[in-house]
Amino acid sequence: MTYRAIVRTLTLVLGLLSSLGLAWAQSPEWPSRPVRLIVPYPAGGGVDILARALAQKLQERWQQPVTVDNRPGANTLVGTELVARASDGHTLLLTTDATFTINPHLYTRLPYDFERDFAPVSRMVSFSQLFVATAALPASTLPELIALARKQPGQLSYASYGAGSQPQLATEMLKQKAGVFIVHIPYRGIPQAVSAVVSGEIALTWAGIPSARPHLQSKRIKALAYGGKTRHPAFPDVPTVGELGYAEVDANVWVGLFAPMATPPAALQRMERDVAAVLRDPGFKEREIDGKGYDLVGGNGQELARHIRQELQTRAGPIRYSGSRVE
Q: Of 36, 121, 177, 259, which has fewest CB within 10 angstroms of its CB?
């Protein structure tokens, strides 16, 4: 190629880049149309409740409708894949840590890849789950439950929202450490699992405080243990699993917001800024975070990505120990 041809080529490239920059500068500010917030869990659970409260506050800030779209199924794979393939720039994902730190250890093949398909926005809240039992169960503490399970192997059952879900992993770890056999019954989601325990159809499950609290208050279920490192102030009489000798049982969850990887940087920056402002709002924090039993985390997308990479490594051992695997 001659010198003159090289100059012409560079001129064309620079002109193209300039045109793209001008088009971006003249493009409407994000969001330019309604935003869809995908929740890969059924309606009525803790993640769904948080999503709807967040959507309302973001709608006020963005001056665009923000709708919650529940897409449960396959340990969050259904909803997560939908967002990974979204190309409209206005589809987001609100999900738990299981999507990116547990599923990669459970599935031989995943229809999404965190590093390739997602841009993290914020790790919003965290919470620990309660191990709850139906009111009629002749055991009111975890030691009493273990003793009962040893006397009646295979006669007690517990509910989760599928093989590889956090309630299933936590209970399988507890079973191994305690040396008991309790039958696993999968349900569509935590609301359905809790309902089964309330009705007495199933003996046990793990549930977040938003899902469990009304049934605990009505005494239709009872709390045997708490998955946090310390006792929860709302339930000071419920001991932690660590206190009872089962510190390896992981019943802790966080909830984060994610966008597809192709989302423009300016849009991601606005999401980070506005989500942080919502979380800092005293009324929102009091009603939707403190009032629901969550712990505020916050942080930006880079911090969330770093946390996921670290947790992905630390969870490999416990999941392998539990024996859970989904093909």
A: 177
